[in-house]
Design brief:
Blueprint (H helix, E strand, L loop, with lengths): L7 E6 L2 E8 L2 E10 L1 H16 L4 E12 L1 H13 L5 E4 L3 H9 L8 E2 L3
Parallel strand pairs: 3-4, 4-5, 5-6
Antiparallel strand pairs: 1-2, 2-3
Helix pairs in contact: 1-2
Length: 116
């Protein structure tokens, strides 16, 4: 039986891998590859599940993401709007991914942090 505090799920979806794990009070959703329309439903389901959990923080790790389109941007905006009291955080991605957030004027409106 899996340890509930370190439960991990990994799904491969075309060009996107979604790795979700609970680490103490934090729920971390790691995105690897390309986030576009093909993988959006799985990412949305994972974000909704994290939001419905008792995790005090939800962290979306964009460091492994190589591409994000408007569908992915919408998912991040919706997740941020759903979160309460700073519960939702995005770990900055590569320069090319961050550039998409910058040119759409979302870099200053979403809760980005640098990885430690």
């Amino acid at each position: 039986m899996a340890d509930k505090t370190r439960a991990e799920e990994h799904r491969r979806l075309g060009s996107l891998a979604v790795r979700s794990k609970r680490d103490g009070d934090a729920h971390v959703v790691e995105l690897i590859g390309e986030l576009d329309l093909d993988g959006a439903s799985a990412v949305e389901a994972e974000l909704l599940a994290a939001d419905a959990s008792d995790a005090t923080s939800i962290v979306v790790d964009l460091r492994g993401l190589e591409f994000i389109d408007s569908t992915g941007l919408r998912l991040m905006v919706m997740a941020s709007e759903r979160s309460e009291n700073g519960r939702f955080t995005l770990l900055r991605g590569s320069a090319q991914v961050q550039r998409v957030f910058e040119i759409t004027d979302l870099a200053d409106r979403l809760p980005f942090v640098d990885a430690q």
